[in-house]
From TrEMBL:
Record's function text: Acts as a defensive agent. Recognizes blood group fucosylated oligosaccharides including A, B, H and Lewis B-type antigens. Does not recognize Lewis A antigen and has low affinity for monovalent haptens.
The keyword Disulfide bond appears for this protein: yes
Domain Fucolectin tachylectin-4 pentraxin-1 as annotated: residue spans: 25-174
The UniProt record lists the keyword Magnesium: no
Family: Belongs to the fucolectin family.
Name of the protein: Fucolectin tachylectin-4 pentraxin-1 domain-containing protein
Domain of life: Eukaryota
GO biological process: one example: regulation of complement activation, lectin pathway
One function term, GO molecular function aspect: fucose binding
Length: 215
């Protein structure tokens, strides 16, 4: 009976941890609806927003594999709609390599629950200065959202926003509304562990087994 209870405890704990952290194997941005503030020369097929989440990591913008906004917008942004709420684990951004590496600088990665990314959002990452051409970011505290925006404020350089591929890894949130400002994995694990301990104790008591070694 002790072996059975230990097995039950292990399965419940494993499933609970996966529900909090997930396996991060799904690129939830792939081929989802994407928009951006503007498109260079209005050439959507060559520089449009879908070039950043079509699964092509080619980093040569002149081949038509990257997005490209104009340089005159007060802010530059690119947004992808996941369709549902997801807990985000990591974001991978592939930038242009054939030219103008300094343009890939001073931007933010924002998560939000509505299409209005400017009023309410959670900050996943803030890049200060030039970023590497392949950027891998882990979102702190496993933030959640329905949308992700790469946001760049205009400055005296007037750099456009150019993204060759944006991959977002996470897991769908089901059965509850998530407050992106309060979800804390450590709190979730503590609650889950205490619940499992109580379940284990109750199960042992039902079989008249005295619990041993449970804090």
């Amino acid at each position: 009976m002790r072996e059975i209870l230990n097995s039950v405890f292990y399965v419940l704990l494993t499933n609970s941890l996966q529900s909090v952290f997930g396996n991060g194997s799904l690129n939830i941005a792939l081929n989802k609806n994407a928009t951006q503030v503007s498109t260079f020369n209005d050439n959507v097929s060559r520089f449009g927003p879908m070039n950043a989440n079509n699964g092509n990591r080619n980093q040569v913008a002149t081949n038509g594999d990257c997005t490209h906004t104009t340089d005159t917008d007060p802010v530059k942004w690119w947004t992808v709609d996941f369709g549902n709420m997801y807990t985000i684990e990591s974001v991978h951004i592939y930038a242009r390599k054939d030219c103008c590496l300094e343009r890939h600088s001073d931007f933010e990665i924002r998560l939000h629950n509505t299409s209005d990314w400017s009023s309410q959002f959670s900050l996943c990452y803030k890049q200060i200065g030039q970023a590497p051409s392949e950027l891998y970011v882990n979102c702190t505290d496993h933030l959640s959202g329905k949308y992700l925006t790469v946001y760049k404020k205009d400055d005296h350089h007037h750099y456009p926003l150019t993204l060759c591929e944006v991959e977002v890894y996470g897991n769908e949130v089901t059965g509850k509304t998530v407050n992106t400002n309060t979800l804390k994995p450590t709190t979730e694990i503590t609650t889950i562990t205490n619940q499992i301990r109580q379940m284990t104790t109750n199960t042992r008591n039902n079989y008249d087994i005295q619990p041993k070694g449970i804090a």
